[in-house]
Amino acid sequence: GIFVFVRQATPYRRDVAVDRPKRSRRRRDDSNHDAHEQAQEAAEANQPLGADVPTTGELIVVTERAVPLEDYLDSLPAGAESAARVAWGLHNLVSALGFLHNTAKLAHGAVCPHSVYVTPAGDFRLFNYSLLTPVGVPGGAAGCGGPTAHFRYFERGVTPTEYRSPERMEGRWDEISTSAVHGIDSYGLGVLIGQVYGHPGAGTGGKIPLKLQKAVSRLVSNKLRMRPRVVPLLKCPVFDTPYVHAQEFLDNMAVAPEEEKIRFIQSLPDLLGRGVLGRDVAVHKVLPVLVGAVTTIAAQEGSMAQDVNRRTVLATVPPLFCIVETHLASEADDCR
After folding, report:
1. Alpha-carbon torsion 226, 227, 233, 238, what sign?
2. Considering only CA atoms, which of 47, 62, 61, 63 is closest in space to residue 14?
3. Rounded distance between C-alpha atoms, residue 161 and residue 275, angstroms
4. pTM over 0.70
């Protein structure tokens, strides 16, 4: 994540953002771009539009390497491998929205390409929480249910028009306030899925996979109450691939039972050798996970006396050599 903090000093009127995600260098061509940027920045700074905000410069805090979604898609070669990567990325977004809706009881409100960044390992990260709002609970204008007054005032300028559901476009806040929390985000996610798969780099010929088309059509229904929750999407066969399963296990490996962990590590040479997991995952996720597992065991006095720890360490040797020889050996030679 990239966040920008602005200190106060001499006034100027343009950049009023506080704690905002760094956006793509590329600018949208539509005529509403300037208004979109200004409203977004004002919303995040909790300042009225056009306010004078004194600053002395920016303090940039980077918590994780990432690139904008559009740049990531541009970098992908067309093919089945790219389709698997995109499926995993969408899996990440559905999981993130599911947590917001089911655990935090909040709507994101700005699901669109500008709110998604991608890590070197291919994980999609949901950013831009400037419109985060409860829905259907106290907190909105005039004491009615959410969305909040903040959301209602700024959402038009922050969220691109095509990602705003019909009830948002028409200002039907009473209808939204009595609906489930997922409704507005389900619509945005449906539009985003179509946009992502329409990109040449998605590896699906510019079309949403057949197994996902019905679900997407329900997500973008004009009727708010007809839109399904997002988490059941994870059961779609498009996410039932070796790549997605491997990525999911890597993310949860720290809490997996030891025997399952060993079996998975033993399967890595095959996954790496067949190209199921490419260089991005091998170097930026598998390698750190394996090194972390061995380091944790080595830090415990007498740990190698336990059979399960010895087998874990022995299982890591083949995939470590595979990654070094396949992806890192040439880089080491270049540095000599």
Report:
1. positive
2. 47
3. 39
4. yes
For 160-214, give the DSSP string. -GGGS-HHHHTT-HHHHHTS-TTHHHHHHHHHHHHHHHTSGGGSSTTS--HHHHH
User: Half-sphere exposure of residue 158, counting CA atoms within 13 Å on the CB side?
Assistant: 29
Q: Read off the DSSP letter of residue 120.
A: T
Q: How many CB atoms within 10 Å of residue 309?
A: 19
Q: How far is residue 179's CA from residue 118's CA, in Å, rounded to a whole number?
A: 31
| Rounded distance between C-alpha atoms, residue 158 and residue 166, angstroms | 16
What digits encode the pLDDT tens for the residues 15-57?
Answer: 333 334 444 434 444 434 444 454 455 444 544 444 454 455 5
| Contact (Cβ atoms closer than 8 angstroms) between residue 60 and residue 93 | no
146, 177 Cβ separation under 8 angstroms: yes
List CB contacts of 137: < 8 A, sequence separation 6 or more: 105, 145, 146
Among candidates 148, 143, 144, 142, which has minimal Cα distance to 107? 148
Which position has the higher pLDDT, 8 or 225?
A: 225
Residues in the chain: 336
Backbone φ and ψ of 29, nearest 5°: -85, -15
Closest CA to 320 of 272, 249, 248, 254: 272
